[in-house]
Amino acid sequence: MKKKIKAFAAVALAGVLALGIAGCSGGGDAASSDGGDGGAAPAADGGSLRFMTGGESGTYYAYGNVLAQYATNGDYGLDVTALAGNGSQANIEALQDGDSDIAFCQSDVLAYAYDGTNLFEGAPYEDFSVVADLYQEQVQIVTCDPSIKSVEDLKGKTVSVGAANSGVYFNAVDILGVYGIELSAEGSADFEPVYQSFADSADSLKDGKIDAAFIVAGAPTTAITDLSTTKDTYLVSLDQAHIDELLASNPYYSEATIPAETYGTEGPVETVSVGAVIIANNSVSEDSIYNLTKSIFDGQQDNADAHAKYNELVLEDAAAITSVPYHPGAAKYYEEQGVTAGE
């Protein structure tokens, strides 16, 4: 089933998001006073952290800037610089290459890296650990074609499946697979795949160059809200039988609903999600990651005013990743709150 995004609602929502980002620096004064209660320990590495987020039209970038500014402006002994990134795989590679200290990553992709599967087939990377699982990233199938009402309707169409070998690409492989639609490294006999970023996918939809796109990000996503200001835009729901089949075969997904008010759709959109996780290079000091983790939770109320996804932060969920170990600094913080990380 498709759900149309009402353009007037999307315009209003885009304005709210812009105000939230513009207001991040203004929220820093409050962060300084609130963070002072924490008694943050001085970090042996000086507390300077390069934070690889995501593309500027995605949720990683917006959320990451809110988080970085709060941690830096507060009394945590940290200087966190948010950097635009190119997705989960590239973010892990940035950690591996020494170009970043902490990064956003999908929960499925971090497991691929640690285990040496899919994106990291035969080349596992284990020199990183988990800081926090912050919120859920919904798989959003977006189209401007009202005739595309279900996943099956993607057959014979031109569809963006994310950047080549990205986390989005493998999400598309999984979802299309349960519907019997083939997608592999060789392409597809069932439809024409193209490999684009969120922003490029939105531009291609606007220009009529593609029929639909997979976007995996926390809803609301800027690329979608911006698109809906100029084009009639629809989200395609997954049906329950195929959701159940996907969950039975893949432990990284959760069932998810995008409420109607998120985009102003005519009804809720049924889909699946993966976790949006902050990971750290194991070389980052325990003190720095402890202080970072503390700042994430200290700032929950203030930061929710700057970015709505902060409302989804739950202590127990943040500590619940089991596929990769937690950084000692993060584990220490959770233990102080009565939660054992990784269980």
UniProtKB/TrEMBL annotation:
Signal sequence segment: 1-30
Keyword presence, Signal: yes
One protein family per Pfam: NMT1_3
Keywords of the record: Signal
Keyword Aminoacyl-tRNA synthetase applies: no
Spans traversing the lipid bilayer: none
InterPro entries: TRAP_TAXI
Cross-referenced SUPFAM superfamilies: Periplasmic binding protein-like II (SSF53850)
Protein's name in the database: TAXI family TRAP transporter solute-binding subunit
